């Protein structure tokens, strides 16, 4: 399954993605971009937000249902991993 991912180490919080596609991106509590929706991630607005990111911090990642396997692909930062960590 493909998901949107924001690399928090690369994000500078410029807000381009939020301005272009507020349906999928918003600022987190630290002022960096965060994915807020995994619906319709093939839309033109998502693709524009990805291509407009000055640090290339936004990408698609392939995930599986297993947290261990997801972390191999997303370094533990995908929405599913963050949800699993919050429940732990």
Please tell me about this protein's structure.
There is one protein chain. This protein has 88 residues and is α+β, with helices and mostly antiparallel strands. It has a single domain, classed as Alpha-Beta Plaits (2-Layer Sandwich), CATH 3.30.70. The protein has four helices and four strands. A two-stranded antiparallel sheet has the order 1-4. The protein has a two-stranded antiparallel sheet with strand order 2-3. Strand 2 and strand 3 form a beta hairpin. The longest helix has 9 residues. It is globular. The two termini are 23 Å apart.
Topology of helices and strands:
Layout: E1 2-6, H1 16-20, E2 25-27, E3 33-35, H2 44-52, E4 58-62, H3 67-74, H4 79-87
| Rg over C-alpha atoms, rounded to the nearest angstrom | 12 Å
For the largest beta sheet, what order do the strands appear in spatially? Answer: 1-4
Give unreliable regions as ranges: none
Largest sheet: 2 strands, antiparallel
Instruction: Give the overall average pLDDT.
Output: 85
Question: How large is the count of helical segments?
Answer: 4
Q: What sequence of helices (H) and strands (E) makes up the elements?
A: EHEEHEHH
The tally of domains stands at 1
Strand content: 15-25%
Percent range of helical residues: 25-40%
How many distinct beta strands? 4
Q: Find the structural class using helix and strand composition.
A: alpha+beta
Q: What best-fitting shape do the alpha-carbon axes yield?
A: globular
- CATH architecture descriptor: 2-Layer Sandwich
Report the span from N to C terminus: 23 Å
CATH fold-level label: Alpha-Beta Plaits
* Subunit organisation of the chains: single chain
